[in-house]
Design a protein that fits this description.
single chain, mainly alpha
Length: about 120
């Protein structure tokens, strides 16, 4: 069983939501359209996936069969299979990602205003 902190996998699973909220917060603060800051969403998701891969390598639980963390849902699926964990992580990440993509940009920006207490 892996010795790394379970918080990291939870952060990775929530990365679509965290990335979209950060994207909206930055959009609100600098005045750039939300859709032009998609790279923030991508960086958060890929950054956490690659960090998780590094943590797995440090614990000795890494296997080359995991594939690239750039394909996050596939990486999460293979990670769960390798470590004999729940496949729910991959499912939740996928559902959150679809939900974020389908959520209107105005709703994300409004959520960001609420989070940053600037109503």
């Amino acid at each position: 069983m892996i010795n790394s902190k379970p918080n990291l996998i939870i952060l990775l699973v929530l990365a679509p939501l965290l990335g979209a909220i950060l994207q909206a917060i930055v959009s609100n603060f600098i005045g750039v359209e939300y859709k032009h800051l998609t790279f923030i969403f991508i960086i958060v998701n890929l950054g956490l996936a690659y960090y998780d891969e590094d943590r797995l390598k440090l614990t000795g639980e890494y296997s080359s069969t995991l594939g690239s963390p750039a394909l996050v849902p596939l990486y999460l699926y293979r990670r769960a299979k390798l470590l004999k964990h729940s496949y729910g992580y991959a499912v939740i990440w996928t559902i959150l990602c679809i939900g974020v993509v389908l959520t209107p940009h105005d709703m994300m920006k409004e959520l960001a205003w609420i989070i940053t207490f600037q109503q």
